[in-house]
Automatic annotation (TrEMBL):
Keyword flag Calcium: no
InterPro entries per the UniProt record, alphabetical: MFS, MFS_trans_sf, MFS_Transporters
Cellular compartments annotated: Cell membrane
Protein name: MFS transporter
Annotated membrane topology: Multi-pass membrane protein
Cross-referenced Pfam families: MFS_1 (PF07690)
UniProt lineage: Bacteria, Bacillati, Actinomycetota, Actinomycetes, Kitasatosporales
Keyword Hydrolase: no
Superkingdom of origin: Bacteria
Species assigned in the record: Streptomyces lavendulocolor
Length: 418
């Protein structure tokens, strides 16, 4: 199908296109476990292991960066046909990371750094493995909707997990240890469920011309995607805006209650869960690259909106920032619904894994550097922060829009055995 309509989307068909019921349960369990611990890993290092906040933060950042080094190997593994096995391995690796975390003695930063590295490797490997699995089960615009559904489900699990963990934090260090143990069990359960799907890829039948506007299913060499990958580093800053930039601005510049930051984070999660699939379906009538460029424009508009909102100060600043955050979330949803979909549409079947791994490298790098960039720009004032982000994002959107695609050869189809 070249485009989707709301009437053509059925929950059962969406679950099937996303990998099937067992895989959907695995995603939900994995996301729930991740929500229990991932947002509070810094607190675990400080409260349970009694490490300094700077040492804990450096270890976590190092874990994310070093975890990116596993991506080339993950890409090659995927290109050998593995699908559910790689997804399960990413979950199992994170379970091992939790075991290392629980075994870390108080006051020892290096074992904590090792645990953060293993967790980081699993976290980095999962998105590419998941996208490759979905691309093997579904094709064309159905695949786009399935990727969107997976993101909505994951955000729902993350949100529920984070809420449960927040409610348990009153228990202090002991509660954090229990949450870590439950997270490890969740990862292990999710890995078993994902592995039970037994999905592989093998060469597919000739392409049917679906999604030709973005090269989906056509013949030709793999695109370099240099502009897309560079732009993606800037685009992913939007994922850290609700968690880092807005709390920083609201608390340190507008002197607003932390409740505003929490409300914006919850609203972001709810909007992603509710709108990720509908917006992806609605925009499926346009080329994926056009939609991705549009996402950059929407994000840039929201950054200019934050600039205007912060200038209000006083009692109006925080509500204005909260209102503009809705626009930012819409831009995030459009970006998330088109970026991975575009990469899977452009990637030739024999190198789908390596192409997704390159894309995940750019995503991981952007997520790693964005906290440092945001916190470095913020002290120089709203214009430096929001104006800088807006300019960089508009430049990235222009690069995405003007880059020329080279079409990809035939797709892969699902097989069994791993």
């Amino acid at each position: 199908m070249a485009t989707l309509t709301f009437s053509s989307i059925r929950p059962r068909a969406l679950v099937r296109a996303s990998g099937g019921p067992r895989y959907a349960v695995a995603l939900a369990v994995d996301a729930l476990g991740t929500g229990l611990l991932r947002p509070f890993l810094l607190l675990y290092g400080v409260m349970v292991l009694r490490l300094s906040a700077p040492a804990t933060g450096i270890a976590m950042t190092g874990g994310v960066v070093v975890g990116l080094l596993c991506m080339p190997a993950v890409g090659r593994w995927l290109d050998r046909g593995a699908r559910s096995t790689v997804v399960a391995a990413s979950m199992l690796v994170r379970a091992l990371g939790v075991v290392l975390l629980l075994a870390t003695p108080a006051g020892h930063v290096w074992p904590f750094a090792a645990a953060a590295l293993v967790l980081g490797a699993g976290n980095q490997a999962w998105p590419a493995a998941h996208a490759a699995l979905v691309a093997t089960v579904a094709h064309g615009r159905e695949r786009d909707a399935a990727l969107a559904a997976g993101r909505a489900l994951r955000n729902a699990g993350l949100g529920v997990g984070a809420l449960l963990a927040t409610a348990c934090l009153a228990g202090g260090a002991a509660a954090l240890q229990v949450l870590a143990a439950v997270t490890g069990l969740a990862y292990l359960t999710a890995a078993v469920l994902a592995r039970s799907v037994h999905l592989r890829a093998r060469p597919a039948a000739p392409p049917d011309g679906d999604g030709a506007k973005d090269g989906d299913g056509a013949g030709g060499p793999a695109p370099r995607m240099r502009a897309l990958l560079a732009a993606n580093v800037v685009y992913v800053f939007c994922l850290n805006v609700p968690e880092i930039a807005l709390p920083l601005v609201l608390v340190t510049q507008l002197h607003a209650s932390p409740v505003w930051s929490a409300a914006i984070f919850v609203a972001n999660t709810v909007l992603v869960v509710a709108l990720q699939v509908p917006l992806t379906v609605l925009l499926s009538r346009f080329a994926r690259r056009t939609v991705l460029a549009l996402a950059g424009v929407v994000l840039a508009v929201s950054y200019f909106g934050f600039l205007a909102a912060t200038s209000l100060g006083g009692g109006w600043g925080a509500p204005a920032v909260a209102a503009v955050s809705v626009v930012c979330t819409l831009g995030e949803i459009v970006y998330a619904g088109s970026a991975t979909a575009l990469v899977t549409a452009l990637a030739p079947a024999p190198v789908l894994g390596r192409t997704l791994a390159r894309f995940e490298l750019s995503t991981g790098f952007g997520l790693a550097v964005s906290p440092a960039a945001i916190t470095a720009l913020a002290p120089h004032g709203p214009t430096a922060l929001w104006g800088g982000l807006a300019a960089a994002t508009l430049l990235s959107a222009s690069a995405v829009a003007t880059e020329k695609d080279r079409p990809a050869p035939p797709k892969t189809r699902a097989g069994t055995g791993g």
